[in-house]
Amino acid sequence: MSTMCEDHDVLVIGSGAAGLTAALSLARKLKVLVLAKGKLDSGSTAWAQGGIAAVLDAGDTFDDHIRDTMIAGAGLNDRETVEFVIERAPAAIDRLCELGVPFNRDSGDLHLTREGGHSHRRIVHVDDATGWAVQAALLKAAEENPNITLLPHQSCIDLITGRHEEKYSASGRVWGAYALDERTGEVKAHVARATVMAAGGAGRVYQFSTAPRGATGDGIAMAWRAGARVSNMEMMQFHPTCLYNLEVKNFLITEAVRGEGGHLLHPETGHRFMADYDPERMELAPRDVVARAIDDQIKRYGLDYVHLDISHQPPEFVREHFPTIHEKLIGLGIDMTTQPIPVVPAQHYTCGGIVIGLDASTDLPGLWAAGECTESGLHGANRLASNSLLECFVFGEAAAQDILCKWDSFDAPPTVREWDESRVTDSDEEVVIKQNWTEIRRFMWNYVGIVRTTKRLERASHRIKLLGEEIEDYYGHFRVTTDLIELRNLHQCAQLIVESALRRHESRGLHYTLDYPALAEAPVDTVLVP
Ligand code: FAD
Ligand code: SIN
């Protein structure tokens, strides 16, 4: 069954930091529909721990934050974008304070913590659960806004473009999206004059990831299929310290633990091994450096994990700074005030994505994008800690401003075709989805992980081709489900990551390959054109 709805001006796909920032700003003048897969707070935003980077301390400067961002990004960042975002950070924090986010304070001033790669304390936070507080404040404001309709449990399948118009056109103009209602199985065409893609990252393409279940790169894949360029997809960030636990597989131990003095130790000898890799910055080196060091220790000594130890700090300091992590670990039998925490690296953030400009516009007229599904030029070859939520606020706002500014020039949407289910049936082989999903995530972890080789990338590429035929065949014959939508998108993202990685003949930032260990002279983006 399929129907069409059109009682809003703008469609926002995603209810995380980027989507809700755009929606709240757009709602000053327009009617906004926000669609989210699963629950409204099921994206990465709610899971963010460390905080948001902003220059707020008298001793800190924009220039320092810009320099730290460019150093972490190994020079692949776009300097104009970096300046654009960092200079807007204090205003973004002010807006969040106005929305009631209860940031930690020290005698009235915002408390600033420190994370790897930052030369100053500049991370505003709400204990060690910043994302939860930010998500709650944004959702409350959106729920109270009469111009915003929030619709959870909607899995967008594809963007609506000219080829879906009743009278076929080759135009790439975007007019909204088709979405599956997860509860009724109905597919609706949500038509809109402007669409903002804010569907988050693709972390779940890897077997081990700190990202939530729904981070399957849907936004990147939808935009790519509709004709938008994507860039730097090989730049997948691995967080150095994910809890190693056989039952709890994706619990992050915030970088702020290292920022507040935590040491990384060999679990048997107690050696503080960062001295062997980056003696100056030690545990506060950028993430790619620390993750590679841990990976090297694990492989070199046949370890399952390394230790992160902050037990030399006073117990009340640890409990006060990390209440959420402390409580979670106590539940697992680890007291971080007296014991080290076993940790391993895990995929954490998608630096690449849909190419956008400073106004958050994409290659496709009618489509804007913001947040983790984009490649804005901010992160380059590696994201500096706590710059990601910031990017969501700045580009969510930029998208809204650009849409509001151009609104009067937009045509009314055409009549579009309804979702066609005439040639599909219900699947009798759901096992195929599970099998392919597991296979992709496993070979991406083993062949396209922290340290790469051309041979392993080619192996992955070969498997992606074979799976592609199977998935498209399945998609062509069976009614869509959220699992199938996600599998198709995971596969698409895996292909984009591997193709990008094969094209980069150097080691830069997060892309480290034994076949090209040196840095190329000039930093160049890997841009894929559909
Ligand atoms: P998300 O918050 O992931 O939201 C995506 C939205 O899109 C969701 O609403 C989802 O339901 C929806 N969606 C997805 N697919 C579809 C579809 N097909 N149809 C409809 N809707 C869809 N960054 C920092 O700056 N500081 C931190 O301290 C920090 N800590 C982190 C800790 C963890 C454990 C993780 C995983 C990430 C952390 N990050 C941090 C990164 C940061 O949280 C994310 O990059 C950021 O929240 C992304 O926001 P977003 O709005 O782009 O996407
Ligand atoms: C963390 O708290 O370590 C995550 C911060 C980030 O991803 O920016």
Low-pLDDT windows of residues: none
Whole-number count of domains: 3
- Assign the CATH class of the largest domain: Alpha Beta
Q: How much of the polypeptide forms β-strand, as a percent range?
A: 15-25%
- Write the CATH fold name of the largest domain: FAD/NAD(P)-binding domain
Total DSSP helices: 14
Q: What's the CATH architecture of the largest domain?
A: 3-Layer(bba) Sandwich
| Mean pLDDT metric | 95
Question: How is the secondary structure organized here?
Answer:
Layout: E1 2-5, E2 10-13, H1 17-26, E3 32-35, E4 52-53, H2 62-72, H3 79-87, H4 89-98, E5 105-106, E6 109-110, E7 112-113, E8 123-124, H5 130-144, E9 148-151, E10 154-159, E11 176-181, E12 187-191, E13 194-197, H6 218-226, E14 230-231, E15 236-243, H7 256-259, E16 263-265, H8 287-301, E17 306-309, H9 315-321, H10 323-331, E18 341-350, E19 353-355, E20 367-369, E21 374-375, H11 388-406, H12 431-447, H13 454-477, H14 482-503, E22 527-528
Parallel strand pairs: 1-12, 2-3, 2-13, 3-9, 13-20, 19-21
Antiparallel strand pairs: 4-8, 5-6, 7-8, 10-11, 11-12, 14-19, 14-22, 15-18, 16-17, 17-18
The structure holds flavin-adenine dinucleotide and succinic acid (SIN).
The site of flavin-adenine dinucleotide (FAD) has 42 residues, from helix 1, helix 5, strand 10 and helix 11.
